[in-house]
Amino acid sequence: LIDKPLKQVLAKPDTSGRLIKWVVELGEYDLNFKARPTIKSQVLADFVADNTPMDCMEEDPSENERGLWKLSVDGSSCITGSGVRLVLTSPDGWTLEYALRFEFKATNNEAEWESLIAWLTI
């Protein structure tokens, strides 16, 4: 129901009035706190690998005629925020650059995953 143990919430009454109201209301029931499990990065990598359609992985016979495009991805995080930069380079050397700033705090690893998602939506 909440992501903090009831005892911890009751020990700090200034945290949130509405939350305390619900804690008091639900306190008569035998509720136990169970921490939310964290998702490891390897699980996300396995999910992407398992759910990528095989036809996307087959080589297009006309690729050699058109040439290959190169995608460079940079996801980064710092104290002032986090973001991602994508650079798409054509076989002729023409480049498209795309950058976005996240509206949330992220670690470097999370920024890398968000850059992958941004690439998939382009």
Automatic annotation (TrEMBL):
<protein>
    <recommendedName>
        <fullName>Reverse transcriptase domain-containing protein</fullName>
    </recommendedName>
</protein>
<dbReference type="InterPro" id="IPR036397">
    <property type="entry name" value="RNaseH_sf"/>
</dbReference>
<dbReference type="GO" id="GO:0003676">
    <property type="term" value="F:nucleic acid binding"/>
</dbReference>
<dbReference type="InterPro" id="IPR012337">
    <property type="entry name" value="RNaseH-like_sf"/>
</dbReference>
